[in-house]
């Protein structure tokens, strides 16, 4: 187990280095540089342009600049954004929590919904319900995301007016906010409470894993509901409840859209792996022991089928984070993805590199965490 | 008829519905099994042995259908039970050692827990500590270190897994244990050990056993009575000694001669030409007739009845081999 | 005993390729029978055929009933209509876009390039993945380790983010994009799938037989292993097409690609001209391209799933 984690860590470090290098050289290879913007600007003389180039370090050879850049990056200095005239690090640190919170929540919901539905689907083999859900699932799986998100905004934002449109908070409300309270503090606090809840749930899951499924699911559901109640109670009692609610309210539609887009992949894969697992001999053995169908399904078939589904989730994590660019853009959710896109289209190279690095690093970390979680799910790895 | 049989299978018929048509995997099979008795079921690969075992536990795939006959366990017809009632029969009354026993353990749970799961299923209010003790005793019985109960299946060797499966089959003290080629995946020495232990435990605990194999040499070691199956039907059933001394069905004769060393007697080797029939389109009449050296015209038209020819020796043949020919 | 009859018995009267063809044809017929059992796959195939016909119909319509300077997808403009965009009418079944071009014509024209893009990306992916997968599985060792680590690395990259960065800074057209997607997914996750499959083929007896018969490594890889990967390759192509069409549409939507027309660009034009905020009123600008992308992507995906049930016997019902 320790060896497995050490191995993964090493792999991540190497990958991270390659990733940094790749980022740097891709951007370095692009034709021209920032100073060309000013070529036709009469206020800028050639000398001033040269001075700017030197100041930006653009006159040194690529590899020297790479190592300089690498050193700076490791020290947390990502340069200055051309666009915002602030350190890139500051811009990104402000935006990362929004992305993390949105995607963590959406991914968790997506995974459980998809897994749960897929399990049901496998048991409905050959029925009309199966065909129906498969077609709907395939639609969501392949739907053109920006288009779908827009349609959802039209429907729930414009027509039904259930949810606010765009942005992640209500500006007028926040203008009256107490001094020193920033949206980021709330994001980070929300993230913390959610992590605590998740840890508690995992502990409950672990403690009940060997129980008979009826009792186990009783415990798990009460833990979920109880835990959620405590969290909601805590936030409701806190003085900033109004502001936290505002953020959550703005987050609802993006989460619904992200869940709808992503759950079907998990669902369809769960169905497939369940069908494969059902042919295993140990499923036959579980039936032969006289276990009821539901126990066979939930305790044996689903528990084994989750392994490949989880693997696929791990693989798709970078993709989900990258695909976040689309969702963030459509919802004007100012997270890392939207930052990357606007920086790319405006040629704000330091910010592009910074946000690309952030997204990539996040993807890697998520990958690592998921990998370790996988090891806990599969004894063949845990005790290897 | 002094004693009522534990299990009585009457004219059991089962098909698999496939794209190409029904596969007649079990056709008109009847036999009795007394308490504490062990019956060997022998036949070529694909003749329907596993199908019989699965039909007894009603663990058939979705496309299988029992189209006729009865399975009476202490007089209770299993074919008419509801799924819930059947679940109570499984493992408590009839348990099974699977053909692919190597993969019959769920890889994500500890082996001991999987056995406890079966015990707790059938004895709802058993104390966990007691269940645990029983698992350790069972492990001891089948010759595995009781500490291994806390290990996962991938940490077991093939032979150990096999024994764990046997321990699991014994866990609820069933009336009948079905062993479907439990040793084919093992090497010969381990095979022999496992076989002997299984037989010993079965005798000790007074259970009945159906032992399935395509290898008559193995069957000879464990079974008191032997049933010979061919293409979905039983062709002969008798005491082990009787079958070896006086086989009557031409197919049995051919099988015996393939293993001359068993009884140590010299016999003319009867070569069996041809292929086993395709159960999609079984031959009419006696299913063995295309390969039978003694086939008559009637064999091609009429199915021979499966009847007692004396002393509990059942036979389905129009033209049985004479007793003397084999005994010489 | 004479040798003559034996000789005639083994004499091959048909040329080898004919026999091969016949076997392939028989296999195809069987697979088709299995495929048609799955209604969902047939629906997908129907949608693909529908779009294929649309792509073919466009040039025909342009040469017959459609007046080129009105219906041209790039520069057409209908002078009889005063205000653009205009809602669907008899002359313009799906209305006109903000610049006055016919939406249906744009939609049909773009279909051609979507097919080219999807198929090209799929072919590149599958060509790379089969060769690399077969070679990795066959030789193993350092070569295998290298390709697998490379695949891991590509797997961990945030795909869309990478495409955004690349397309923002370099000039990407349809072909370049197809190649890029093909290379990334060919060396990435797809290779891992193909290698796993190739490993199961490698241990088959006929591979051993070919080795004993003195077949060279390359001969064995390309004559014995690769052909057996073909069903999987075919299946995988469907999924790659879905991915490629989706990526193109997303990048076009952001306005990052150097293309004249595509479904994604149609949405982008609508957005750039500010009609997205008009709500349902301008549905004819956004629903047709969005739905087209979704439908074609789903269609390839559904066909892929149905093929999966043909190729993978473990998923079959009987
Ligand atoms: N699910 C199924 N669908 C269709 N046909 C089946 C199915 N399972 C088994 N059969 C067919 O039924 C026949 C009997 O199979 P069975 O598994 O009972 O044979 P067996 O005697 O146990 O063989 P072996 O010694 O190889 O285990 C075979 O011809 C087999 O092809
Ligand atoms: Mg069998």
TrEMBL record, chain A:
Q: What is its main location?
A: membrane
Compartment(s) where it occurs, according to its Swiss-Prot or TrEMBL record: Cell membrane
Topology term for the membrane:
Multi-pass membrane protein
Report the PROSITE patterns cross-referenced here: ABC_TM1 (PS50928)
- Its transmembrane ranges are 9-27, 99-117, 129-156, 186-206, 218-236, 248-269, 305-331, 351-377
According to its UniProt entry, one GO biological process term is: transmembrane transport
Which keywords are on file for this protein? Cell membrane, Membrane, Transmembrane, Transmembrane helix, Transport
Q: Which domain of life is it from?
A: Bacteria
- The ABC transmembrane type-1 domain extends over 96-370
- Spell out the GO cellular component terms annotated for this protein, sorted alphabetically and separated by semicolons: plasma membrane
Record's family? Belongs to the binding-protein-dependent transport system permease family.
* UniProt name for this protein: ABC transmembrane type-1 domain-containing protein
Name the source organism: Thermanaerothrix daxensis
From TrEMBL, chain B:
- Write out the annotated subcellular location: Cell membrane
Keyword Metal-binding recorded: no
Offer an example of a GO molecular function term for this protein.
Answer: ATP binding
- Keyword Membrane applies: yes
Q: What does the UniProt keyword field contain? A: ATP-binding, Cell inner membrane, Cell membrane, Membrane, Nucleotide-binding, Translocase, Transport
User: CDD domains, from UniProt?
Assistant: ABC_NikE_OppD_transporters
* Gene3D superfamilies in the record: P-loop containing nucleotide triphosphate hydrolases
Q: Which family does it belong to?
A: Belongs to the ABC transporter superfamily.
This protein is called Peptide ABC transporter ATPase
UniProtKB/TrEMBL annotation, chain C:
SUPFAM superfamilies xrefs: MetI-like
Tell me which UniProt keywords the record has, alphabetically: Cell membrane, Membrane, Transmembrane, Transmembrane helix, Transport
Q: What name does the UniProt record give this protein?
A: ABC transporter permease
Write down the PANTHER family for this protein, in alphabetical order: D,D-DIPEPTIDE TRANSPORT SYSTEM PERMEASE PROTEIN DDPC-RELATED, OLIGOPEPTIDE TRANSPORT SYSTEM PERMEASE PROTEIN APPC
Q: Which InterPro entries has this protein been placed in?
A: BP-dependent_transpt_permease (IPR050366), MetI-like (IPR000515), MetI-like_sf (IPR035906)
Stretches that traverse the bilayer: 40-61, 115-138, 150-169, 175-194, 232-257, 282-307
Biological processes, Gene Ontology terms: transmembrane transport
Similarity comment: family membership: Belongs to the binding-protein-dependent transport system permease family.
User: GO cellular component annotations, sorted alphabetically?
Assistant: plasma membrane
Membrane-related topology note:
Multi-pass membrane protein
Primary location recorded for the protein, binned into one broad class: membrane
Domain ABC transmembrane type-1: where? 111-304
Tell me which domain of life the UniProt entry assigns to the organism this sequence originates from. Answer: Bacteria
Q: Where in the cell is it found?
A: Cell membrane
